Structure formats: C-alpha cells, structure tokens
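B., you asked whether I could sanity-check this one before it goes into the benchmark set. Here's the sequence:
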Amino acid sequence: MPSVFGKENKKKELIASLGDIYKHIEREHQISPGDFPNLKKMQDQLQAQDLNRFQPLKPKLLEAVDDMLAHDIASLMILVRQEETQRPNPVVKGGAFDGTLHGPFGHGYGEGAGEGIDEAEWVVARDKPAYDEIFYTLSPINGKVTGANAKKEMVKSKLPNTVLGKIWKLADIDKDGMLDDEEFALANHLIKVKLEGHELPAELPAHLVPPTKRKIPE
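And here's what the prediction gave me:
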C-alpha cells in the first residue's frame, strides 16, 4: 500500500479487483472456489476496514506455515492412515443405512449413498464408462492416476476441499494415494451424491465397494 498518499484509491482498486484476485489464487494454488469466502460479503467487510491497521506480512512466518503444510501435516496423515488400516471397520448405522425396522421404507433407503443397496450390480457401474473416458485423459501410470491429477478433475465440481478430502478418503480404498479406474469412478459417484444434496456416509458401505476389492467370504 502507498505509504502516504493514494491509500483510499488503492483500497477501492483492491475491492473492485477482488474477484480477479480470487481466480488468480484459485489457479495458482489449485484451491476449490467453494473454499473462498463470499465475494460480496468480503468486499463489504473490506470497505469498512482501515487498512492502515493491517499488520505487514511476515515472510518467515509464512515459510514456516508452508513447511508445516508440506511436511509435518503430510507425515501426520500417513500415520493417521496407518492407524485407520489397523483398526476394524465400524458398522455404519443410522440415516440411509438403518433400514432394519422399516425395510425399503426406512429413512433415505435407496437414496444418495444408499442407492443400489439392494441390487446385485455395482451401482457405480452405470456411469463408469463416462468416468473411464475422463480417467484415461489424466495420464494414468500402471493403471492409476496420481493424487495431483485426480485433484485437478475433482475440484471442477466446486465442492469445498473439506468435502473432496472426505470423498478421497472413501474412494482411495487401498490407501495408496492414487486412484485406479474403479476408485476414480467411485469418487465421481460420491461427488454426484453430494451435488444432489445428499450426505456422505461416515464409512464406505459394502454395496459401494468396487467388486474387485470386496473380500471373498472364507
């Protein structure tokens, strides 16, 4: 900001171009549009702020945060995944998955993530050909697409990163940080479920597990 003159004009310029700033940050850092605060609300809040009171940026502090996100959090997520694979999967109860009392008339039965619960065919297979076309444009290696390439496609849904992170956790069944064609199709199916206004399950229900990844009864 100018040190003496032109601060008010610079403030107006910043507010007017805030939408372009959002788009620049979105492209540069691959951030989902849903993670940004409401543009109009943010512009109104900035209009009421005295920018003279803003503290200057501290590059060293930002570097420390970037290092934490790139290394410490990544290491922590590996430990979390290891812990999750070592504990037994809990039984999913409630909502769309609690149909014991009312059968097909239970709340949410056959809707959202519960769609296809009583069908022999994997429900995701209906749309898998369309998902496969996208999958093979993402440069799969040994039959799998990297997390970075999958993310570029998933953020197009404009769902918040927190929701996409949950979908990734559900779809990455073997927890290898990559998606094969079945896992990618499953991720897109769950995105569709969320976009249609349904809740995501806490754990992946048995009928959504890809057929090749289901455990064979002993």
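One thing to flag: The longest strand covers residues 144-146. Otherwise nothing jumped out at me.
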